[in-house]
Amino acid sequence: MAELAMCVDVSKCTGCRGCQVACKQWNGLPAVKTGFSGSYENPPRIGGDTWTRVRFIEKEDSGKMRFLFRKEQCMHCTEASCQAVCAAGAIQKTDRGMVVFNDDRCVGCKNCVVACPFRAIGLSEETGSSRKCRFCYERIENGMEPACAKACPTGAISFGDRGKMLTQAKQRVSDLRGLGVNARVYGENELGGLHVIYVLDDEPEIYGLPANPRAATAGLFDNWLHALAGVGVVAFAPFWLIFRERGKAPDKSAGTEVDGNA
Q1: Quick check: is 67 in a domain?
Q2: I need a surface site. Which of 43, 63, 124, 214 has the fewest CB within 10 A?
């Protein structure tokens, strides 16, 4: 079966949060109560009960301030760090490219939360398990598009065959460049290919995206070596202290040994 993908064109996003609301409604996610954080963003970050949200960015260009918007969610990576670090086997990839969680198997260790290079996973206080965007796979299995794509009023979100989404994204980039916009495609090759592809009209870092995301396992061997070295030091320390104490010469200035028969 052909892999599926979502194309998000930030140049068409108006920050209406329709996708955010649709995700909450379809998945039955509770509202998150947050105080004012000095930003228009609400909630301030993705979490176990917020699987998609709109990021607001303020940027000054030629003395003028403008708003930029980006829909944030799980990127459904081909090289999925979350799956690589999950000790419980609660994360699987479907043959259509979706990365899905099994809540019943998740033990709430949060390894996946830390490993995700896009910070798109959170721990749900309600379930005690890690949760994230599921690409509305139950809708897809019934011939429908994800709820967020269905709700988008400006056409900023498209969904379909990954090859077609890439072709669409590249054509849009070409059109924007023709208008003098510094546009680019993000997600074609990153981490083996993402299943959320962006049409960006600025640098990835401006939108909170890593320019060169790395899988969490990229430095795993070095991390294990450091960890084992640390364990070795800790294990050897008591023996080193014992031998150090035994090797010390007696301190005669402390007094004369007392005869037990005195």
Answers
A1: yes
A2: 63
